[in-house]
Amino acid sequence: MVPDISTGSRTYGLLNYLYGPGRRDEHTDPHLVASWMPGLAPDPGRDPAATLKQLTDRLDLPVLALPKNRRPARHVWHCPVRTAPGDRQLTDAEWAEVARRIVHATGIAEAGDDKACRWIAVRHADDHIHLVATLVREDGRRPRRHEDGIRAQAECRKIEAEFGLQILNGGDRTAAQRPTSAERSKAERSGRPETPRETLRESVRHSLAGAASEEEFFHRLTEAGLRVEKRIAPSGDTLGYKVALPGDRNRDGEPIWFSGSKLAPDLSLPRIRQRLDAGRPADDAHITDRAEERAARPARARRQAATIAERAVSILDGDDDENSAAQLVGVGELLDAIAQTSPASTRKELAEAARAFERATRSHIHAERADNRAIRSAARGIIRAGNALGKGEDGGATAMLLSTTVLVAIAAVRWHSARGHAQQAAAAQRAAQHLRSAYRSASAVPMNAMREQGRRLPEPVRERYASTLEAVLPEQADHVRREPGWDALAATLDQAERAGHTPDVLLQQAIEWRELDTADSVTEVLVWRLRRIGKLPATTAAPRARTNGRTAQSLPHSSPSQVPETSVGPHRVDGRSRGPRR
């Protein structure tokens, strides 16, 4: 059950909409289900003699009784209350009880207070009602409605439990402001898929992702095509900013501006400065203009980001809440960076993942003093590297990174859930679902190629790698061998051995990197870890014929086209060396 409180200045205009046909003739049988005093509230929906003006005058009477200079400018209180999809249909009597409980909880009309505000509840659809009140009490005073939105939410949670409805997640006032009904209507009329507020919020987030300075942030806003206006102090310092979409104007032809704080709590200039100061990315490495180097940048940036993202998972599993909160902010920037530079095949899902995870980056746990420079630098590197192709080493490296971001999102779900952050946990869960879809799309080609290579290995070689798996992962070996990715894992172990690694040592490192319990596919997670730790290509070519047995196994033979730019050459891992435990 979702309440949505707003205020306005025209009682008649709101009632005309509620009793009218709706924008698409969706309003059916509009009528009152409850009011401050049924005998005094005419119902134009059921009484042919009643008019909207009569109802307006009755509601506004305490307001009009005040001298003009004491009347509030926005005296209309409006609160739609909607049940969740799938909930049963409530009766008029049940909606009347919901209405009375919400006006009581919010301070509009507490039970037993005969001097409270006048209010009505209008129903014109099966799944919701509209509460309308005028914000002057019968005694001429204003109602005590401090934090009425939070109190309405809390009362709705109680009503859901008592009425047997879906119990939704409670808010904590860290969410971005939702578009108003007027903004949504204007977007529909203009044929926009979303409101300007939502478009601007995403554009500002993208401009901030990996930005090294305030100047770069504002430069990116301008490059994104937004109108930008700074608020400058007499000293010349920038105090704030606001943005507008080109062509989005009000009825007077003026641009419709949104300050950063109106887009999201963490997009105000002071909060942006805190983020930049606490986690300023490292300086850019020298970037060469050679064509082969330019082509390798997106893959290299993604491989480096995958390692850093795995470290974020370890931090989220730890006890440092401030550091974890900072990592979540960095993960949000990383997802924004990936979404901006992703190939067309995964762009939509990644954009949805980034939008969903944006809610998971904000809670009441502050991270002003924590350091997230590494993950912000990873986001910056991805943006600086440019757009990735959906094939070849780019495609494989993208799948490698997305495999890790799924684990990060799951870790975020656990972290928020453990701290009672229901909205954020749900947002991280939605992001994980979109990331899984994007991963499946990105990994299809490279994983199929690796599976095919694994199937073509001689059976004695496959059995030897099965024995290696049994030795280092005895409890899960049978399960892993039944997964579809086992052939790809065998191919990766074979490629690692040919590159000079010891398969059992490298596999042990990949397993100890961190737990595998949250992985959808243990084999696929291990494949990408092995390729990252062993500096193997993220893609594979057609398998070469092996000569017999141990001789071939000891000869590294990676062609130049198979070795990624980050590779430092074939090497054997010291058996005593361990990757960091996750």
Automatic annotation (TrEMBL):
Domain MobA/VirD2-like nuclease per the UniProt entry, residue ranges:
69-165
Q: Where is this region: Disordered?
A: 170-201, 279-299, 539-582
Low complexity bias locations: 539-552
Highest taxon of the lineage: Bacteria
Q: Where is the composition biased (Polar residues)?
A: 553-565
List, as start-end ranges, the regions of compositional bias called Basic and acidic residues. Answer: 181-201, 279-296, 571-582
**What's one Pfam family the UniProt record gives for this protein?**
Relaxase
Q: What is this protein called?
A: Relaxase/Mobilisation nuclease domain-containing protein
